[in-house]
What we know:
- There is one protein chain.
- Helices cover 37% and strands 26% of the residues.
- By secondary structure, the protein is an alpha+beta fold.
- It folds into 2 domains: 1-35; 37-90.
- The chain is elongated and about 75 Å long.
- 0% of the residues are buried.
Amino acid sequence: MAGRVCRSWRRAPQLLAASLILVWALIAAIPVAAQGTGGMIAGTIKDAQGGVLPGVTLTVRNVETGVTRTIVTEGDGTYRFAGLQPGTTT
């Protein structure tokens, strides 16, 4: 039994090193995952007098693919189309 314990403890530094490498690799991959290939359009809808317009429906369309996305402006008139595929939009 004592022989098994000794062998287990001999592997501990190797397991610790492998675990640390795995954790480091996962942490290093986080910024890469955050860098997408998509784009974003954001802004605020205002009337002629400069007042914000909540509840306005906006649609953006990718000209190449025909894909559309529709959102409604927030209470402060802001909108955000995130994760848009590259291409020309209208």
